[in-house]
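Hello Y.,

Per our agreement to keep a running log of every chain we model this quarter, I'm adding this entry. I've kept the format consistent with earlier entries: sequence first, then predicted structure.
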Amino acid sequence: MGRVRLPRMAVEVVSSLFKKSSTRKYPFEKPIVPLGSRGMQVFHSVMWHGCGLCPRDCPAGAIEMVEVSGKKMPLIRIDSCIFCYVCVENCPRKALTESNLAGHRGQRGARHQARREPSER
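Predicted structure for the entry above:
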């Protein structure tokens, strides 16, 4: 009787069970963000003066003004943001700054109102 050979795909599947994984286990393992990559914008409310340039200049329409404690502040919708940083570049008081925080990038419906300074909490 002749020898039965496993199909090539079955051999590949079985051998891959014993190899090291080629991907990271996100979100359980933090991603390694390359230097210079664009992440979420950081909002510094102490420097904010309410000019409203960021929602006007955002090409993706990802920034809207919402009322917080009687003051209009930007709400950045990360799921719509294209990370062009026009808002960061045009902010006259540098209330929006760049970062390499990529934690919520790509999550549908994720909203990010940039963090407050510790003195305002």
